[in-house]
Amino acid sequence: MKFWKWLGLLLILGTLLASPVGAQVGPQVHVLTVDAAISSATADYIARGIQAADRDGAVAVVILLDTPGGDVNATLKIMETLENSPVPVIVYVWPRGGMAASAGTLITLAASGAAMAPHTTIGAAHPVSAGGGEQDPELIEKVVNVMVEHAETFAARRGEDAVRWAERAIRESETANEQEALELGVIDVIAEDIGDLLRQFDGRTVPLGGGEVTLHTAGATVHEEPMSAIEQVLSVLINPNIAFILLVVGIQLIFIELSAPGGWVAGFLGTVCLALAAYAISIMPLNWLGLVLIATAFVLFFLDIQTPGIQALSIVGTGVLIAGALILFNTPTGSPYGKISVPLVVATALLVGAFSVFVVAKGLSAQRMRPALGAANLVGRQAVVRTPIAPEGTVWLDGELWSAVADAPIAAGEQVEVVAVEGLRLRVRPVTTTAR
């Protein structure tokens, strides 16, 4: 009986060893999700996801794309990554109602395969102005020509119709829905969901590097590769409202550190906020005049705090801060980063201005108060002689024993008045008694 028991245990153990837990059966597809403006964090995320898919032996990478566009440099970096990817990459414009606008169009064209969900849009890839004020038409034309040439290089493998449409999408901001994109050859399939996408791409031959590869994606195991915590934070920062808050908080903390030096927490946190704001500002369109006005506003707040009594400086600073924020993040129409919230700007500026006025008011109140400590507060106070003063002795004042000196001897127990403070010693005189 024991023999059969041990034999059964050995068979079970052998089965477990022969079939490791977690082993993947069949092909594997890695799925990345890009659902915000394109930034350098997006480029890093896609590069890392492709490396992970290659390391795990995945047959393909699917990028679920829903973006209004983004940074041109990051877009070009992503296109280069897709072109040199060791794993076929399929860009899938998803979910329903989503879009691959501007930078998203170029990323879709650079992929090995492209698909769109029903009721999605692609196109409108004309570059927007990257700064405030008038732009040089010749410079804009040069940028457009470079982007057209780059897009046509990738669209060429999709046919002449796709090439012509790519040029119109950049020069004239033309768009296409999923059915139009399919007819033009811009995409390969229209898919209801990712399962439908993998079934339709199974057996298709797609470009990969300098050659081609046949996909085997039917029934593949889907592995989702999310953004790392740092990549998520950096992606969230690409928003004019968040950048404005970080900028204001950072400058405020730095001024607090300058107003009351000696600590490090305010200065450290202010530096971190300013570094994060600088990252966002380096990507989003900005007007340098706005940045100058914001800095000027905080200089006015600082001067008001340092020289209390001129609260008008804080009032003027509030208005300058509002104007600076609206100018700094006055992004052009169609910008993928969105518009700054005017109520947020006004509320934040009023809060900062009110804080400055509050600090100034507290400073004025403190100046009018009689000092609670120090030599000036001791003069005129009365004390009791503990040891005879002849000419030196001790007196008891406010629960403390002080050394004292007088011009004439004074007996213990007598009331005396402080007439001067000489270092750590009090000069006293007898309290004059009034005859009854």
Descriptive account of the structure:
The structure is a single chain. This protein folds into three domains: 25-230, 2-enoyl-CoA Hydratase, Chain A, domain 1 (Alpha-Beta Complex); 239-368, no CATH class; 375-430, OB fold (Dihydrolipoamide Acetyltransferase, E2P) (Beta Barrel). A six-stranded parallel β-sheet has the order 8-5-3-2-1-11, with helices on both faces. A five-stranded mixed beta barrel has the order 12-13-14-16-15. Helix 12 (288-306) runs antiparallel to helix 13. The protein has helices spanning 2-18, 40-55, 72-83, 103-110, 137-155, 160-171, 178-184, 194-201, 229-237, 240-259, 265-283, 288-306, 312-328, 342-368, 375-378, and strands at residues 28-34, 60-65, 89-93, 99-101, 113-116, 121-123, 175-177, 189-190, 205-208, 211-214, 221-224, 382-387, 392-397, 400-405, 415-422, 425-430. The protein is built from 15 helices and 16 strands. The N and C termini lie far apart (121 Å). By secondary structure, the protein is α/β, with parallel strands linked by helices.
